[in-house]
Amino acid sequence: MAWRNKYFLPEEVGSHKTRDDCWMTIHGLVKNVSGLIEEFGHDADLVKPILREAGNDVSYWFEKNGLGEIIVSTATSLQ
User: Fold this and answer.
1) Cα angle 26-31-36, degrees, rounded to a multiple of 5
2) Which stretches make up the Cytochrome b5 heme-binding domain (predicted)?
3) CA–CA separation, 61 and 53 (whole Å)
4) d(Cα 55, Cα 70) in Å, to the nearest integer?
């Protein structure tokens, strides 16, 4: 069977917004970051902004802000 792309509606991504089931959209790709939350713990400083934006598009984190700075490096290992 050939591999096929899967598409998600924003509403579906938005329904995954708990610390045990957390998805985000980054530049059009849906990422399940639940494992990251589990690895670091839901109270970790790294995880707090992720939980605040759970179920949302966070592409702006990886783009230049008004000062020409990238908020989050695209060199992270987030897959």
Assistant:
1) 115
2) 10-65
3) 11
4) 22
Token pair 């579906």: residue = 12
pLDDT in tens, 18-40: 999 999 999 899 999 999 999 99
For residue 30, the surrounding DSSP H or E stretch is strand 29-32
- Alpha-carbon distance of 77 to 79, in angstroms, equals 6
The pTM of the whole model exceeds 0.85: no
User: φ and ψ at 72, to 5 degrees?
Assistant: -125, 135
- Rg, Å, the chain Cα set: 13
